[in-house]
Write a structure and sequence with these properties.
Layout lengths: L1 H22 L4 H45 L3 H6 L4 H4 L8 H19 L12
Length: about 130
């Protein structure tokens, strides 16, 4: 209890000194040290605190984004229930020459495009 009173008296003495120095131009060095102490306190206490707050905010944001993505996609059980069975799609399908079908479709398209283009005469020139 005695140390508490001693500390309070020291604080009172510092307060009285600052009030006296506030009015005197000779205490510039005191105010310089006060500003440097406040700056050091801000750097050593404020910046780590600010980093922790920003890190917590970013972690919270990442968690919300993860939950939103998870809610957007169905769970694995639901996905397996509606899984497409590709083996059943091609059972009994005719085996047709794909290359021949592609050539035929291209020829039909060329013939169709020839008549639909404005400014064409309907016949192909030798260069085409």
């Amino acid at each position: 209890m005695d140390s508490l009173w001693t500390m309070l008296r020291q604080i009172e003495a510092w307060w009285a000194y600052t009030l006296r120095c506030a009015k005197s131009p000779g205490c510039d060095s005191f105010w310089t040290w006060v500003w440097l102490g406040a700056l050091a306190l801000a750097v050593f206490v404020g910046l780590p605190l600010l980093r922790k707050v920003v890190r917590d905010f970013l972690a919270e944001k990442a968690e919300r984004m993860r939950l939103a993505e998870r809610a957007r996609v169905a769970d694995p059980e639901t996905m397996s229930r509606y899984k497409l069975e590709t083996g059943k799609l091609y059972e009994g399908a005719e085996q047709v020459d794909v290359e021949q079908r592609i050539r035929q479709a291209l020829e039909e398209r060329k013939a169709k495009d020839q008549w639909q283009r404005p400014g064409t005469t309907g016949t192909r020139s030798e260069g085409e």
